Amino acid sequence: MAPTPAKATATVSSSEPPKIHASHIGSIKAFAEANGVGPIPSSYHSITEPRDDVAHDLAASIPVIDFSLLTSHHDPRRRAFAVRQLGKACADWGFFMITNHGISETLMEQVINKSHEFHNLPIEEKKEFADNKGPFTPIRHGTSFHPQSEKVHYWRDYLKVLTHPQFNFPHKPYGFKEVAYEYCEKIREIARNLIEAISESLGLEAKSLVEYTGFDRGLTLMAVNLYPACPEPELALGMPPHSDHGLLTVLIQNGIGGLQVMQGGRWVNVDPLPNCLVVNTGDQLEAVSNGRYRSVVHRAVLNNRDTRISVAVANGPELEKEIGPAPELVEKEEEALFKCTTYSHYFQIQQQSRLSHKSALDQIRINPQN
């Protein structure tokens, strides 16, 4: 059964795209299917910089971390090298791919397939999950990012679920909840190991950042994103340039390109290795590391042929714990670059603001020019 087309408040004109607010479009997927190859609404014209400013020469330089070396203690020298390599990736890129992570390709494929099934459900079946009660709602489905605070909107539908410390998930489609639970548990274990190694790369004890941030009781958000083919991809974005709110975000996708990361002021296309996990550092890691490891700015670009699906799991600190630069680092460096704040406060700021580069992080920066 095909989704019911969303109702628009303006009629498409051949001379001028209609001005349609995202809150009037229940699903960009349904709108795109109804709109066909017609012009997109002017309220979705979100491109503000050239799409061709892409550093193709840097794509091959994206760091790749062999996760098995980080978790093996059979060869301390090789593990120490992997820890240094991870620290360099966090410092230079804020972004890396990990191989040999232990999650089966079958499970990753199941997550992507069930994500597609969810977004293919009729609009009426997803209304019970409508995102209208705030960022701490356990299950939210919507479109764009936060339409109420946006001047322009983004060509994306999403399902956002809080999966830790309490696991929540939609009861449909059949089997999605069970697959997601297994996947999220494995991702949290990987993220915990990465944070321990990152802690060591900063010259701290392995458990230091895990304990300081309350990671074991931390908030985990799973975002299931769908970016339909767009008839005018040169005008629109799936997501604008932004950094993530947590410590580490781990992402997989359905093989369709669209993720770009900022490196040295230029955009770099990300073409993940087969069966790898893509990881980026978030704002909380920049704050905890006192600026040593900067959260990476990234965006989602579109194409006019294929639908892209990505599943991102954002791993953050404990909600009500005050977090700032790790005390051991401040003692060494004598100056804290960020204010302390609870993650719940920070999460709410980021989720309900206009998404733009590091606008949320700048609110807790002591010297915003840094």
Automatic annotation (TrEMBL):
Listed SUPFAM superfamilies: Clavaminate synthase-like
Gene Ontology CC annotations of this record: cytoplasm; nucleus
Transmembrane stretches, start-end: none
UniProt keyword annotation of Ligase present: no
PROSITE patterns reported in the protein's UniProt record: FE2OG_OXY
Gene3D superfamilies: B-lactam Antibiotic, Isopenicillin N Synthase, Chain
Record keywords, A-Z: Cytoplasm, Dioxygenase, Iron, Metal-binding, Nucleus, Oxidoreductase, Vitamin C
An annotated Gene Ontology molecular function: metal ion binding
Subcellular location, principal: cytoplasm
Keyword ATP-binding: no
Cellular compartments annotated: Cytoplasm; Nucleus
Primary role: Involved in the regulation of shoot development and salicylic acid (SA) homeostasis.
Name the record gives this protein: Flavanone 3-dioxygenase 2-like
